[in-house]
Amino acid sequence: MTEHRDRNDPAVPESGTAGSASSGQEVQPRSVRPLSDAWVGGVCAGLADHLGWSVLVLRVLFVLLGAAGLVGVALYLALWLGMPRQTGQRAAPGLEAGARKGLRPGGTTRLTPVDLGVAGALVLLGGGLLWLVQVSGWGLPTPALLSGLLATAGLGLIWWQADHASTREVRTGSGWRRLFAPLLAHWTTVVAVLAGLAALAGAVALLVATTGGLGEVARTLLLLGLAVTALLLAALPWMLRVRGALAQARDDALVADARADMAAHLHDSVLQTLALIQRQAGDAKAVTALARRQERELRQWLYGESLGSATLSEALSGEIIDVEDRHGVDLELVTVGDCELTPEVTALVRAAREAMVNAAKHSGAERIDVYAEVDPDLVSVYVRDRGRGFDLADVEDDRMGVRGSIVERVKRAGGRAIIRTAPGEGTEVRLELPR
User: Fold this and answer.
1) In this structure, what DSSP letter does residue 31 have?
2) What is the SS3 assignment for 373?
3) Strand order of the sheet with strand 367-374?
4) Which of 13, 244, 256, 265 could make an S-S bridge to 17, C-beta 3.0–4.6 Å?
C-alpha cells in the first residue's frame, strides 16, 4: 500500500534538503487576494504574501506608477481581475456559521487608525505626484485623465461589491433568479453598482465628447465600443464569482451523492454482514467466512471494480447466488434480453439486490421472483414476493433500506423505483432505467 503524506507534514523533509532534492523544484502556489487584509481589492496584500515583500512598499510603488499616466491604476485593476479571492480562511465558529447562512459578509475588514493615516498619506502622495506630472506636461490630456479617474472609481465600486456579495443563494437556489441573487442581496449593493455604472457612463461620455476629428458614424461606433467594453468590464467579476459559486454547488452535489452512495453501500453490505455475524457469533468458521467475504466485497467497491460480470443477467445471477447463500431463501430469475453493465445499470443491480435482501429478511416468503427485461429504450427489473407485505407510508425517512438503497439510488442513476405493497399482499419492487 502506498502511503501518502501531506506536504505540511513534519515528517516530510523541507525543500532544499537532501530528502527533497530528488523530487525537483517545488511549484510556487498561485497568488490570491486576501480580502481580510485588503484596503481596496487586496492586490498589494496578495502580492506581498506571494513575493515576501512589505505590503507598504508595494502600495507606495503602485502610487508612484499611478502618478505616471495612471499606469499603476491600470496595472492594479488588471491584477484585481486576474488574481482570485482567497478562500478557505478560518475564522471563529460563530462568524463562519453566520457567513455560511448569509448573515455576515465574509472577507471584510476594518481599517485601524494607523491604516487610515497611512492610506491618507498615500492619497496625498499620489495626488501631489499626479499634479506635478500634469503641470510638467508629461501627463495625460485632462479629458483622458478625468475619464480614467471616473472609470477607475466606477470599476472599483462595482468590483468591490462583487468581492463582498454573498453567493449563498447561488449555491442553494434554483432557476435563473439565483444568478442575480448576489446583486439583489442588499439595497446598498444595488446603489453602489448603479453609482459605479453612472461613473463609467460619465467616463465614456467625456472621452467621446472630447475626441475630435471624428465623423458622426465613427463617433457613434466609438461610443458603442466603449460602452460595451465598460459593461463587460463591470460584469466580468460578477460572472466569474457566479461561475465559481455554481462550480462549488456542483462539487457539493457530487460530494453529497458520493456520501449517499457510500451510506447505501454500507447499509447493503457492511451493516447486514455485522448483523449476520451477531446472529452466528457462536460459529467461529461462519463468522470468519462472513468477515472474509465482506472484506473482499468492500475492497472491490473501494477500488472501483465492477460486480465481476459483463452483462445485466450475469450480474443479477451473481447477486441472487450471494443472497441465497446468505439468507437461505430460493430466488428465481427470468431475463428477457440483456445489456452491458454501465455505472447506471450497476446502480440498478445494486438496488435490485437490496430489494431481494429486504424480501429475504422481512417478507417471510419461501421464494422470491426476479424478472429482468431489456428493451431498446428501457431496462426493467422486478423483484416480487408473496409474503406478509408492509405499509409503505409507515417507512420512516431515515430508513436506508427502501429510500436510500433503492429509491434514491435508482433516482441518482436517472431512473425510478416503484414499490407496490400492502400488509398481507406481498411486495413488488419495479426498477426502471432509460437507456
Assistant:
1) P
2) strand
3) 330-336, 367-374, 378-385, 427-434, 416-421
4) 13
| H-helix or E-strand spanning residue 132 | helix 113-135
CA 415, distance to chain mean position in Å, is 24
Q: How does pLDDT run across 180-209, given as a tens digit for each residue?
A: 666 666 677 788 888 989 999 999 988 888
Please list the alpha-helical segments (H only) found in 266-376.
272-279, 284-302, 312-327, 343-358
Q: How confident is the model at residue 434 (pLDDT cuts 50, 70, 90)?
A: very high
Cβ neighbours of 44 (radius 10 Å): 25
- Cell numbers that stand for 299 in this block: 475492497
Are the C-beta atoms of residues 368 and 360 closer than 8 Å to each other?
A: yes
Give yes or no for a contact between 405 and 264, defined as CB atoms under 8 angstroms apart. Answer: yes
Apex CA 305: angle with CA 300 and CA 309, to 5°? 105
CA 277, CA 269: separation in Å to the nearest integer?
12
Q: For residue range 231-268, list pLDDT tens digits in order.
A: 998 888 878 877 777 777 787 778 877 777 777 766 76
Contact 324, 330 (CB under 8 A): yes
Nine-digit cell at 300?
Answer: 472491490
| Gap between the Cα atoms of 323 and 353, Å rounded | 8
Task: Specify the range with the lowest mean pLDDT, choosing from 79-88, 271-280, 311-320, 376-385.
Answer: 271-280
Q: What are phi and psi for residue 427, nearest 5 degrees?
A: -140, 140
User: Which among 345, 410, 413, 342 is positioned nearest to 429, based on CA atoms?
Assistant: 410
Residues forming a β-bridge with 334: 371
d(CA 305, CA 341): 12
**Per-residue pLDDT reduced to its tens digit, 135-191:** 888 888 888 899 999 999 999 888 888 887 765 655 555 555 555 666 666 677 788
Where are the alpha helices (H) located in 303-421, listed in sequence order?
A: 312-327, 343-358, 408-412
**Cα-based distances in Å from 64 to 69, 121, 131, 144:** 10, 13, 12, 19
| Number of residues in the chain | 435
Report the DSSP beta bridge partners of residue 216: none
Question: Is the pLDDT at 107 greater than 60, yes or no?
Answer: no
CA–CA separation, 431 and 352 (whole Å): 7
pTM of the model: 0.49
